[in-house]
Amino acid sequence: MHEMGIVLHLAKTLDQTAEEHKLTAIGKVVLQVGEVSGIMTDLFTDAWDYFKVRHPVLKDSTLVLETIPAVTWCDHCKRTYETVKYGKTCPHCGSGETWLQQGNECVIKEIEAE
Amino acid sequence: MKLIKLNASVTASNEQDAEALRARMKEAGTLLVNVMSSPGSGKTTLLSRIIRDLSDLKIGVMEADIESDVDARRIEALGAKSIQVHTSGMCHMDAGMTAAAWEAMETKDLELIFLENVGNLICPAEYDTGAALNLMLLSVPEGDDKPLKYPLMFQKSDALVITKTDAMDFFNFNPEKCRQSVLKLNPDIKIFPVSAKTGAGMDALESYLRESLREFT
Fold first, then answer.
1. Whether A109 and B7 lie within 8 Å, measured CB to CB
2. How high is the ipTM of this complex?
3. Angle at A24 between CA A19 and CA A27, to 5 degrees
């Protein structure tokens, strides 16, 4: 359900990009997806294949997903750590004063088009 | 084939739609309040109370649900303008759907519109609906640990309403612990503990809504 919403927005954003750059066909679409963005990559690619045929510019496109690792910053000891492994609590000092630095993104990095 | 570097957010089109809707609603003098929470937290009951208490304001409600119109009928019975939006399986409302619902209400005279988003603590937080105010509900029976489990919604909300405080004695809900973990996620959030049943705490919340309406329009 969640992936479907994102795919709809991705298609809309790419349609607009195609119009702005006067593109006739989009080939590769490189998407950067954060490790803790909650996006299931398999489901996402399936949803993309289902929707792309409805957009003439996108019908032959392929989606390439790059994962952005999740990193958390600790305000207490000023160090970073792997979010997925340790969660909200800093493994260096045990503090809970921690913030996600990266890993929640869903960004269109680049596209190949003509 | 040429390579085009975009570095654009996937939801860029939604963010544009949201900004446009916010500007149009400001012009119309309407404050849109996006109400988010899990199912059963008391959204419709809280809104019913607010509609009765703020009877001097022209209030409308957009009810977003995957199915049925039970909530819209409850609101309509109170005499407020209401519209039922079916999200056809989608787990959230986006700015395009919200703009369409506003058009479908066929009036630009309302002062306050509540968008009762789909009951879900995850997806609605990720989409800007075009609302000027984001309100989140957390009911006492859900527990004080929700900020730890669903941080994003607490981060995105302007205000948190803790509902069903009349049931506090029956549940293991620690208001201070909840307040601390919410403020850690979002130091600017306003917190309103209320009971729509007894009316406790409603004055503060309703003053906040009036003040937000004055500031926005």
1. yes
2. 0.80
3. 110
